[in-house]
Amino acid sequence: MSLTSSQKSIIKATVPVLAEHGLTITKLFYKNLLREIPSLNDVFNTANQANGAQPGALAYSLHAYAQNIDDLAALSAFVARVNQKHASLYVRPEQYEVVGRYLLAAMGNVLGDALAPEILDAWTAAYWQLANLMIAREAEIYSHEATWSDWRPFRIVRKVHETAEITSFYLAPTDGKRLPMYRPGQYISVQVDVESLKYSQARQYSLSRAARVEGDSYRISVKREKGLSVAAAKADGHNAEDIQARPGYVSNVLHDHKHVGDVVQVSHPAGEFYLEPTSGASDVESASYRPDHPVVLISAGVGITPMMAMLEAMLCTSAAQERVDGYAGTNNGSKAKTVGTCPFTSDGDANANEALKTSGYTGSTSVSTGLQNGHASIHTNGHTVSPSPQSKNVTISSTTAPKIHFIHATRSSLHIPFLPHLQSLQHSHPAQLRLTIFNPSPSPMAQEGLDWSFRERFSIKRLQKDGLLDSALEDEGSVYFVCGPEGFMADVRRGLESAGVERERVRVENFGAGV
Ligand SMILES: Cc1cc2nc3c(=O)[nH]c(=O)nc-3n(C[C@H](O)[C@H](O)[C@H](O)COP(=O)(O)OP(=O)(O)OC[C@H]3O[C@@H](n4cnc5c(N)ncnc54)[C@H](O)[C@@H]3O)c2cc1C
Ligand code: HEM
After folding, report:
1. What is the pTM of this model?
2. Looking at the domain covering 152-266, what would its CATH class be?
3. What is the position in ligand 1's atom list of the atom closest to the CA of 227?
4. Distances 184 to 150, 210, 247 between C-alpha atoms, Å
5. Which of 162, 317, 422, 455 has the fewest Cβ atoms nearer than 10 Å?
6. Which residues are catalytic?
7. What is the CATH number of domain 278-509?
8. What is the per-residue pLDDT across 47-74, written as a single tens digit (0 to 9) for each?
């Protein structure tokens, strides 16, 4: 039911109140909710409660909602992100009732007599208007996931140490059924029991490679959160005033206690940060790139994970795409063609190093990375692609392939995952892919020009100075995908903005809570 105009006026009049008291309200709401319904501790992120991120995100969303009550379309990107997160955690319609009850009660507790009955009525109606919108959108997402709409047990079939801090987990469903496709850049949620808390916790992890044609496992790559000191957090670009040195719950359980053969709970692929090709001539759609325009992938630290999937997907499917008309992913019910079917014969993980060494190419690499041009057999109904198993050293030559600039910022040579795989891709796609690595402290063994490009921290200015962004900056159809610590992403955004790139051509993924 939509709001009356007088209710809308009341909601607008509460904007300053929400600005002042919103966070107090949401903090109290979560405190009461989680104390009185402890089973919800499994659902909400305990660290985001402790560090205030989740109460902050909810307060932000209520304030933005009140501000835009006349034009909810302005919130659609934000709400879509929340819908995806909710759906990836299997938030249920009936939970909106309890959340609404505790939220409105917290408003009453904080505002006291100032919450006059007509204001409470207006906020009750406003809450339910928003809740119903979200329930409907989430129902739509679940309906596209008809065969996968609750936590599903997955076995760890492989565990690979990519760096001292980052480990990849290959996850296969215990039911052995084929997995749905996903879009490059999307994430899954992984839920594990956390012994120290005595309840379970879920976290999101980007799928760190393009969807495989075999569809039998997903790969995530998890950074161990050792626990940040204030100084380390600041250096990492976090807003670190209240960061404490407690190790992260889920990443440490995965690193230390989950081994090959163990089972974790997994949700379906989700998220709005993905890319797919468009033939649209003029406007740049939200997740799309145009194959005839440059794509710039910029990451720092573990923010490299969605970029790996995007990169592989673009290289793998740019040529295949035309041949696979209508080869759509099953998730999210997209009508769009899905980029991301990847017939790589190497996994692009640390083990690929061995293959690289034996390939005879020293320095950079030449392990197989492509489908055999012209020989892929693709069955659109059965979702199978069968490149020759011998398809080694094959370069995709495609006139529609985008120019891709993969830019990564690392702290040191010890911290770059997937480097051999990236070098291999660059070697096999020299015309299509440029690789730039910022590394302020390369190891003595690391080779300039191969293992690192700049012995300094990342900056857009440096790229501009060396002309490395020229083709992207000169092209109004170029798009930029960015993922890394918050401070890093803010720097990239500012840098691109001052270089004249419009905001809508820069897409970011936030590994924290909220916007
Ligand atoms: C869309 C998305 C994709 C993601 N993809 C990846 C990925 O591919 N790889 C990856 O490694 N991560 C990824 N993440 C991050 C991941 O979901 C987790 O947030 C991360 O693994 C940390 O979880 P944790 O349970 O180990 O740490 P948490 O327990 O959640 O703790 C997180 C941090 O908060 C600090 N903290 C704890 N308590 C407090 C407190 N009281 N006050 C202040 N600070 C505190 C901890 O010290 C720690 O550094 C992604 C997140 C999102 C949203
Ligand atoms: C109108 C009602 C609601 C609003 C406005 C809302 C808003 C939000 C926002 C803004 C986020 C942060 C999203 C992000 O990190 O990107 C979020 C996350 C989340 N919400 Fe909701 N939400 C609502 C209802 C619910 C309900 C009913 C549940 C179920 C119990 C729920 C469970 C969660 C969970 C589990 C998360 C992730 C938590 C975390 O990472 O700490 N929400 N929600």
Report:
1. 0.86
2. mainly beta
3. 47
4. 22, 6, 29
5. 455
6. 96, 138
7. 3.40.50.80
8. 999 989 999 999 999 999 999 999 999 9
